[in-house]
Amino acid sequence: MKIAIVGAGIVGVSTAYELAHDGHEVTVFEQRNAAAEEASFANAGLLAPHLLTPWSAPGLYTPLKLLGRRATLRLEGVKGTDLAWLWRWRRAARRGAQAAQLSTLEGLARYSQQRLQHIAAQHELEFETSQGRLILLRTAQEQARWQPALQVLRDAGIALREIDADAARQIEPGLCPETPLAGALHLPDATAGNCRLFAQLLRQGTQAGGVQFAFGSRVARLASQPLGVQVQGESGTRSFDAVVLCAGMASAALLRPLGPRLPMAAVHGYSVSAPLREALHAPVASVVDSQLQISITRLGLRVRIAGGAELGAPDAEHHVPTLQQLYRTMNDWFPGGALLSSGLQVWRGARPTLPDGAPVVGASGVPGLWLNTGHGAGGWTLASGCARAVADLIGQRNPDISLEGLGIQRF
Ligand SMILES: Cc1cc2nc3c(=O)[nH]c(=O)nc-3n(C[C@H](O)[C@H](O)[C@H](O)COP(=O)(O)OP(=O)(O)OC[C@H]3O[C@@H](n4cnc5c(N)ncnc54)[C@H](O)[C@@H]3O)c2cc1C
User: Fold this and answer.
1) Is the per-residue pLDDT at 148 higher than 80?
2) Which of 32, 47, 165, 404 gets the highest tally of CB atoms within 10 A of its CB?
């Protein structure tokens, strides 16, 4: 089949890989001049398990506090659509996330991890990976907040240990002994890696294998009859047998004229990537500060600190207090581990998030148009698995993994 993909973020590039692998003729349309320039640029790097990543699902772990110094979600210039999204997210949080959907997501994350590892091994891709994660608990009370997520993880057979501070410091010897630590959750099989680097390596490989990347090509409109895309500046429509929408935050607006609605919001966050200063004082793999929802990940010769959540103004200036909190958290846990005074990459990116935190993967309702978008806080974690599943659906095969509860009909 002749297939178009809209968007060359981690989701679009992974989808291109799988469709090309199945023998399709694939063209990727990307408005930017390279892959992974938007949400996939400098995320925290956390791979499976998914449900312990901040903002993975409403009410699961991230408490929603909108006001005060300890607000977990900062509102800035919110519009009516943002408020409607927030209302739905709050409602889902109050009801408790749907157990079936959570277990689908965790199953998908695990499947994705296996697929990613398979692809990386097959093509010898090196993308600054590390193995193992600690969820750092500053107080004993924090442990209780994790229990619903832990239950899903245990049911899914994911290795997980509740450990004390001494054991945590043995696993991450760089942890500052002066910072109070009540205990930690240890996930020995959790992985992390550089999302952008992986996307670029995969782009390079698929391009060499025949996938066409039309960079600098903004899709102005999706067409249904005949099925295709209209690139900005062109008068005609380019026809395809199938189109897969992987346009991250732009997906909802592209889909809307054809009928289906995606209630997606941008939950912005930040990352600071800093050169390693002293490896002994830096994390060996990844840690998450449970209270502050900030992750610190070792990525090769750098350390990436990520966190913060903002709803509203897409083009807002960087919020200095949030960035200061990232630096403080790094200094709390790994003082001296990274050089925070120069050579920093500071990034603000959007998590393309649907009100239940889960992506939309599958048919759109418009014949030939497929959706693989809205991955929220887990696009890197879920990309390889979702891509494989969409390729299977397009090839009229049953995916190896359940996609229950991830269809667009839930909205
Ligand atoms: C601070 C932060 C930390 C995060 N940490 C993690 C983490 O640890 N683990 C994890 O799994 N996820 C994490 N995420 C989420 C993850 O980064 C996203 O879910 C993921 O990058 C989404 O990928 P995507 O390909 O759907 O979107 P994008 O990467 O945004 O790709 C969409 C692409 O579509 C292109 N596009 C849009 N409109 C058009 C158009 N009209 N025509 C052509 N091209 C178009 C865009 O230019 C873009 O390149 C984090 C996000 C943030 C902000």
Assistant:
1) no
2) 47
